[in-house]
Each structure stands twice: as structure tokens, then as C-alpha cells.
Amino acid sequence: MMILMALVSLAMSAIVGSAQDPAQAQTGDWPMLGGSPDRNMVSGETGISAKWDLKKKENVKWVVKLGSPTYGAPVIAGGRIFIGTNNKAKLRKGINGDKGVMACLDESTGRFLWQATHDKLPSGQVNDWPEQGIPSAPWVDDDRLYYVSNRCELVCADVDGFLDGKNDGPFQNEKHADKQDADFIWILDMFEDLKVFPHNLATCSPVGAGDMIFVSTSNGVDESHKKVPSPEAPSLIAVNKKTGKVLWRRADPGKNILHGQWGSPAYGVIKGRPLVIFGAGDGWCYAHDAKTGEVVWKFDLNPKESKWGGSGRGDRNSIVATPVIQDDKVFLCVGQDPENGTGIGHLYCIDATKTGDVTETGRVWHHGGEAFNRSMSMVAVADGLLYAADIYGMLHCLNAKTGKPHWTHDTFAAIWGSPYVVDGKVMIGTTDGEVLVFTHGKDKELLATNDMQNTVYGTPVASNGVLYVGSCQSLVAIVDQKAATSQKAAADQDNSRQRRPRAPELARGVRSHPLQGNPPKERPARDEPARWIGGSSSVAGITLRCTDTPATSQKASTEKADADKALPASKATSQPARQIRDWPMFRGNPQLTGVAACDLPNRPVVLWKQQAGETVTSSAAIVGGEVFVGSEDGIVLALDLDTGAVKWRYRTTWTSDDPKGATQPAAPEDEPGPAVRASPCVYGDTVFFGDEDGVFHAVEKASGRVRWTFRAGGEIISSANCVGDRILFGAYDGCLYCLSPDSGKLLWKYKTEGPVHGTPAVAGDRVVVAGCDARFHIVRLRDGAPMVQVDAGDRSAASPAVRGETVFIATLGSSVMALDVVSGKTLWTYAPKDRSLPFHGSAAVNDRYVIVGGRDKRVHALDPKNGAIRWTFKTKGGVDSSPVMVGDRVFFGSSDGHLYALELETGRKVWQFETGAPISASPAISADHLVIGSEDGVVYCFGKKR
């Protein structure tokens, strides 16, 4: 204890004097997340442009390609830029594979200098999710760089890397030690040494003061989401920045951690007392004495009566955002993993001068309920105004002292980053790939909508007269080109800015559309808050384009032939005759072509609607006049196709970890079971589907009684595909499973290197599956033997569609590929040239069109022979709903809350219906009826007016 206190005293000798005046906006370098320890997203930089155009390179200084996805926020210090990413861009030649990367770039030119490279944890996705790289924003202090790696390590590195030719510090065993590699000074392995168990990923952006550095460890739950494996492991630590020695540790949430702990701490001096403020995984905000770790006060950000539901259910939330400290106040909001969707949120202003449990006594104001959704964002406080964003895509401007709203703006997209105030402007990035710029003030004025051509997960930052905006795949440096000459002259005369000398190698190398218009229209009104499923969102609108390519309308009889067409007779597997009329599975048939064999009226009307649960993302199956659909509440319903009446209701329940699965016992009605996001598959007299607990269910079609269950090793979102005596589905444990439909006996399983999200397609004697390991796998149906693997270049959440000997697959890397199903040869690749947003939905395919929707808010119609674009259609939201072709039309849903019908030949809109909630499910069409669910839990049935 005496040694510990001596170390603390040494570390604290300069801590109080090092704190920045919280009222002073950051200028010059931007050395950490938030620019300064108080984490306030406000900059004092001037001359920052509100508009830029990547296509025309207007106000664009340089663009650097990074890995995909890139979540890391850039920090700028000493003439260098540091940003976390993955290894997709292969900046450091000769290093291949999935890695965590901390990249160092030259500030002036964007030229790559060096990178730190970290292998993935061998424990896999439960601790280190594939392809996610390093999301941590580092802290640069003098000549040292501090960050948290994907391996849950706190790393101290030399800012020069090995460019200076020296191996500094006690750490001498760098795996990569060439000129373009990192020079580690010390590494604290929190995973091994502190027994921390990060859930999915370690994400903290460290904050420092004096000789101390404060870090959230990301300790969380296990893969079952039920247990905290290391409740005694610290959630927050203080470390000596020179030695890497732990000075104190706190495990306050302990076994009460709800999910993960992905936020970062803030530091400030309150009434002369240095405090570390941390939003923990139990939904409480803790203020710790920076010297000792003692809890000074704590505040519960959730109502006392709230309950945690898991997977976004329930009204209790954890905390993902980082606290902001201003004027002896702390501003913080609740949130969840974005995969859990939106829900009621809470934003608080807390009096940081109090002590003890200050949930009641420390509350200055609260903004939330229906007015504010869950959020992952930090706030920005400037000139008495506070800007906050929520995951649903709303930007809020409030009075910082009272919490009274001034204005809100709906971006029609999800927001992961934070508002940023700079040069009289407020900036916010969206997962649509837009950066919206407003005038800083009480009255809303949208100045520009800038197209980044790719998802924007992070926050723009300004440093030394340049604005930096990171997208999913690149970092862009933006300058006001008209003022550049005068700014450079002024900068040359400014002697107040002190920089460290650059290494000689830094002096070499040079690299080098706004969608202006009216603000978006208001979202459709809805009775209940909708939820955004799937984390990231959609992207900005593109005007409708129609080519002059001739095409003929496809009749229902032609579509029937299209749907039944497979491999040549010698390779084909016969399909049950009922598929001619029914829609027994996701995409309608084992080839997953998304082509209906019936017709719909020109202007379908609502025949009935049924509240199926809290949220419906599962697509329906329709067989024999009955509809089968799952919900996020863990309920599968059987409905009458003509009336919507409930025939039976099946409820999932959480099981033990028994790998053989378990019989589903009854559970209290107010406790939802594992979500059913997979679409049911009806085969014979059985309905098959998986749930988020990793249990695959077989229930009687007539009664809903369980026949058997099978336990996979991870969540099941993949819908089942049945053919012959085989039933196939994928799981998040990376496996493709093949079971006997009669008994549930495992016939074989095939292991990929990442989660399997999509449904496997059947191509004769072959099974095609796309995974999150950035490969397409073709295996033998009989025994799962591998036949072909194809490098996809990026992950895929979509399901393949097979027509003849060609398979069509969309990727999260904004591409659609056509492959030969026998050889795996790539026949063509389509990637939009103007922007690069993910395709989450699956393609609909016939002999004239490949139709697929994307997060870029567009539906793309391609020529199946060569991938040439025929037309595009824009909506106001992302299109995760997989289109379905019906005669001469194509139907699909959008996150803008509408169901659309387009003319297949031209892409012209011929019908739409407003549900008032986002639609990510896909249409199911049978017997002249269309059935689809929306994210407010309502299932709609459309058809001919009676």
C-alpha cells in the first residue's frame, strides 16, 4: 500500500495544474477524443469551410484510403495524424489478414508513415469481433501515443515509430520492426494481466492528466449475454503513463454490467478536486477521485422502475457515450449497442459538485422519454447552447442551463458520432454518408449537406485550420481553398504554435458534392417509437436515373419459370410443387431468387393488419393460406391469410448452455424470449426458425407445438433453407449447419471464419453461403465438403441468389458480384461510382434484372449478364428490405416508413404505402396477397379490394 500511495503521489504532482480551462475551446492540435480532457466537442478553429465536394475536389486537400470499416476518430498532434482502423487497406505492405491497426499519417499530405499492427485475440468474436480493427481514439502527449488495442491492451508507443531508427523503451520484442512499424514503449495486457473480459471489442479512448492515464477496460458479458465472466475485474483503471503500472482500479458495476462497457472516461477539476467521470455498464455515472479512485458521487441515468430486457428490449439502458464536463456540470446520455435499435433515451445535466448518491440531489435537468432516443454521442456545449444527437438520427439543440429545447432536426439516418461546434457552425455525420452543417445558434439554419460517399461513423474534427472527416473507408482533409493562401501567410507568422520537430522522412510525399437543397421532410408520424435495427443506417438521396435500355414487361407465367429455373437437369434438385403458389421461406424458394409466381392488383389495399410484437424484422412465410412470422419479442405467430386472425402463438425462452438445446418451458408473459429475426421456413408439416439465443426450433405447423430444438453456438439470424432431407442455416458461431428435418440430428456443419448472417442458397448439389469472413463458400449439399472459396473483398450480410449456374451476392463493401457457381469465377462486379454504402439486402433475380436495395437509399437494377446499371430509384431512407419481383413490378420496403412498387422496366414508382415505421423485412407474396412487417411490430397484408 505504501508503494502504491507513493506512485500515486508522484503521478499526481502535476495533475491539477495540467487541466485545461473547460471554457476555452480547443485550438491548434487535437490530441485526444474531444480535443481536451473535458471531452467537449467544441473547437476554437476559424476559417473552416461548411461545404465541400469530393467528386469535384472542391475544398478537398487530400483523401487517404483506410481499412473498412473504420470507426476510429482521428487525433492530430505534432504534424502527425493518428487513426484506428483495420488492415483492409494494407497500408503497411507485407502484412496480411485481419488485424487491428493504428495508422500514423503526415498531417500536411496524408502520406502514410507507419502503423502499429495487432493480431486478433484467439478467443474470437466474443472478445475481438472480426474486421472491426481498432475503434479507440488515441491520446498524444509530447512524444508518446496511448491507445487501447483490439486485444484489450493499453499501449504506449513512440510517435516516431521506427522512423527514427531507434527501439525506445523497455519493450524490445516488436513482432514488426521495420521502418514503417510501431515502436512500443510498454504494453499493459488488460485481458491477461487484469482478467478483463471485453464483450465483442475493447473500445476505450484514454484520457490523461499529469503523469496519469485513465482507461475504461470494456469488461462485459459473455457470448450468452447472461453472465459477467469477470465481475471482479476492473472496469476503470488509472495507470502511470511513464511505466504502465496500474495505480488504482475500480470494478464498481461488477456483476451488474448489463452488456458491454464501450464508453470512455472524462477528466476535470471540480472545485479544486480532480475527478475522473465514467459512464459505466450498469447505467450509472460515477465520479472518481483522480488521486485514489474513490467514488465521490454516482448518478443513475435510468428511472428506478426501468428494467433491462436485452437485445434492445426493456426500458433500462447502459451507457455508451462519453461524459462531457463543463462549468462544474456533467452532461451524459444513455444508450445501447446500435444493433439493439432505438428506444426511449435520457440526457442529463448533473451537478458535479455534490457527493454520494446524487441521482435526485444532483439532477439539474433531464431531457428524454419520447423526445430523445438512445444515444452513443457526446454532447457539444458552447455559448449557452447544447447540441446532442441520438441513434434515431435526431440532432437536438437545447439550452445548456435549463435543458429547454430550441430546435431539432431529423437527418433520416442513424447517428453514431457526436455534434461538433467549430467556427460558428455545428456539424454532424450520419451513417447515410452525409455531414450536415448548421449555423451555431438558437434558430435552425441548415447551411450544407455534404456527401462523403460512404458511411460516417465518427465526428468531424478541426486542427490547425483544416477539417478532417473520416468515413467508413477513408479520411478526408478539407480546407477553404479561397482562403487557403491568406491563411497560410497568417500561419507562417504565428509564433504561438509550438510543434515537435518532424523526422526527416516526414518532409516527403504529397497526395492529394454537397447535396444542397431543402432540409429533409419530417418523418412519417407513428404511434410508437420505431427502432433502427442493424446498427448503421442509410445514405443520401440520388435523383432517379432511367437508361434507355429496352426491356419487356415480365408476365407472371414468365416469372414462374424464372423462379423454378435452376442448374441443368443433371445437377438440379426437384422442388416441392407447393412453391408454385406458396412462399414457404425467405425469398420464396431454395435458390432465393425473390420472384413471386402470382400477381397483385395495380393498387393493393390493406386487407388486415396485426400487432405481432414490439418489432418485426423477420420476413413472413406463407403456406396453405397461413402466414408465419417472428418478432423481436421472441414470438412466432401463425395467422390466417384472409383475415389476419391468430391461429397459434409460439414463444421462445432462454435456455441453459446445454449444447444439445432444451425443451422450451413456459415463461411469464412479461418476460420476452430470445428475438426471432430469422424468417420462418415451412417444410412439410413443420415450421423451422432460429432465435438470438442460438436455438433452432422445429414446431408443428398445425398447432405450434415444439417437435424438437437444436442448439447452435451463436445467434441465428440466418433463415432456414429446406431441400430434400436437408435443412440448412447459418449462425453467428461461424458455422453453416445441416440437420435432418425429421429429427433435428446434425448431419454436418461447415466452419467459416466469421458469423454467418445470411441464408444459404441451394444450387443443385451445392450450397452457397456468404459470410462475415469476406469469403463466399460453395460446399457440397450431401456432406458439407468444401468445393470453392471466393475472396469477396468484404463481408456480406446478404443471402445469395442463384439463377442457372450464376450466383449473385451483395456485400457490405458496396458491391454486387456475379459468380460462376461451379468454378467460383467472378463474372462481373458492380459498385456504385458516386458513393460507397453497404448492401444489407439480398438481390431479386430473373433473366433480365438483378434488383437490390442499399444503405445509399437507392434501389439498383442491373443487367444479370454484365452488371450494367439499368436504372436506380431513390427513397428517403436506407433499403435493407430485399426486393421481390411480381409480374412487371418490384416491391420493397424502406427505412423511410414506406412500402414501394416500381415498374420493373423503368424503375418508375407506381404505388406506395406509408406504414409510419421503418421497414427492414422483405415482402412475402402468395395467392395474390403481399405480407410484410414493420419495425413498430405491425404485420400488414395487402391485396385486392374486397
How would you describe this protein?
The N terminus is likely disordered. The chain is globular and about 75 Å long. The protein contains five helices and 69 strands. The protein starts with a helix and ends with a strand. The strands form 17 sheets. Strands 1-30-31-32-33 form a five-stranded mixed beta sheet, with no helix packed on it. Strand 30 and strand 31 form a beta hairpin. The protein has 946 residues and is mainly beta.
Key structural traits:
36% strand, 946 residues, mainly beta, single chain, 5-stranded mixed β-sheet
Question: What would you say about this model in short?
Answer:
The protein is mostly beta strands and 946 residues long.
Main β-sheet: number of strands, strand sense, barrel status? 5 strands, mixed
Side-by-side strand order of the widest sheet: 1-30-31-32-33
User: Any idea what the shape is?
Assistant: globular
Rg (C-alpha, Å): 27 Å
**Beta-strand share of residues:** 35-45%
Ends: how far apart?
82 Å
The assigned structural class equals mainly beta
Helix content: under 10%
Number of distinct beta strands:
69
Q: What's the helix count?
A: 5
What integer is the average pLDDT? 86
Low-confidence stretches: 1-23, 494-580, 657-668
